[in-house]
Amino acid sequence: MEKNEVVVVDVQMPLWSMIVFMVKWAIASIPAMFALIFIAMLFVGMLRGCMNMPDFRIKKDIRYEPSASFYSSSAIYDEK
After folding, report:
1. What pTM does this model have?
2. Of the residues 12, 21, 22, 51, which has the fewest C-beta atoms closer than 10 A?
């Protein structure tokens, strides 16, 4: 069987048709991005599970409460 090769030299396409095509292409890439993020999350989750890595999310029960002595320090205001 003979091998046929095709070389595209130029594409004649109106500007607005090309813009519409590129916008559709960009919109179509959004679900693919979600799929790739989901696959990456699964991979990282399995990797963390295998390596027994800690969870670095902020815990809801830990709060920053400044000490009362910071605001009511008499050493700052005393001029003795």
Report:
1. 0.45
2. 12
